[in-house]
Design a protein that fits this description.
The chain is an alpha/beta fold. It has ten helices and ten strands. The chain has helices spanning about 50-55, 80-85, 105-115, 120-125, 125-145, 160-175, 190-205, 220-225, 245, 250-255, and strands spanning about 10-20, 25-35, 40-45, 65-70, 75, 90, 180-185, 210-215, 230-235, 235-240. The strands form two sheets. It has a six-stranded mixed sheet with strand order 6-7-8-3-9-10, with helices on both faces. Helix 7 links the parallel strand 7 and strand 8. Helix 3 (about 105-115) packs across helix 5, helix 3 packs parallel to helix 6 (about 160-175) and helix 5 (about 125-145) runs antiparallel to helix 6.
């Protein structure tokens, strides 16, 4: 008998979550969990409720009912920055780089936002502030190298391709030292080569100890990178499982109006 893989500790749990806007039900009894070290994709047709679910998990929207927990801590009622402080960090669909700053400076700005030094320490150039600045510069260099843009570190972020700007956005998220990363349509607008590079980056991020939940419409990418997939339609979960199971699930095929949409 083949040995079963050990169960993963639960990192994020979404428990019977519902969201209602007046008479519109955006999410209904959403119930799933993400285990330590998993790459899980949340997919579904347009309007299925994916971004709404992300907004609930990260404090941008309060659920009408249900509970979200991160490493056992209830997130209901917390502000986005409080959730981020717990290590649950998200990216957004739109790029958020500073186009007139270099790639390196964009990442350094992200690190400065995380700094704990006081303004007085920085202005006086106290040893603690100088040491922190050195550490931030070294970290910025490391992050630029990690996302594969070392050769473009001194280029203005506005001169990058859309896909490269998305990579800078991921570096900004990594600057916050997440233990779990929520990626909202990360390869939207990328070409095939950029998508391939990004898939390798996602795997590398996971291998360095960061759990990943992503929303994405690129089905070949989802099928190639995911350990498990959760499928939404009209605010409800209609399927959950590994890629091979999801690819052949009749309810999923019907939701996407044709099997071709699910081919890897």
């Amino acid at each position: 008998m083949m040995a079963q893989a050990p169960a993963r500790d639960t990192v994020l749990s979404v428990e019977q979550v519902g969201v209602q806007f007046g008479g519109l039900i955006a999410l209904s009894d959403l119930n799933f969990a993400v285990g330590e070290g998993e790459i899980v994709s949340l997919i579904g047709p347009n309007g299925a409720g994916k971004t709404t679910a992300f907004n609930v998990m990260t404090g941008f929207l309060d659920p009408t009912k249900g509970t979200v927990k991160y490493r056992g801590a209830e997130l209901n009622g917390l502000k986005p920055h409080q959730i981020a402080d717990l290590g649950l960090i998200r990216t957004f669909q739109r790029t958020s780089v500073f186009p007139r700053d270099t790639v390196y400076d964009n990442v350094l700005i992200g690190l400065h936002r995380q700094a704990r030094n006081s303004l007085v320490e920085a202005l006086l150039g106290l040893p603690r502030a100088r040491a922190s600045e050195r550490a931030q510069r070294e970290r910025a260099t490391e992050l630029v190298r990690w996302i594969g843009l070392e050769a473009r570190a001194d280029d203005l972020a506005g001169s990058l391709s859309y896909g490269e700007q998305r990579l800078v956005g991921v570096a900004l998220a990594l600057a916050a030292q997440p233990s779990m990363l929520l990626l909202d349509e990360p390869v939207s607008g990328m070409n095939a080569s950029e998508t391939h590079t990004f898939v390798q980056l996602i795997r590398d991020i996971r291998d360095r100890g960061v759990t990943i939940l992503l929303v994405e419409h690129d089905m070949p990418m989802v099928m190639s990178v995911s350990d498990r997939i959760v499928v939404l339609n009209y605010g409800r979960i209609i399927a959950e499982g590994p890629p091979d199971t999801i690819r052949n699930d009749p309810a999923v095929i019907e939701a996407y109006l044709g099997k071709a949409a699910m081919r890897a």
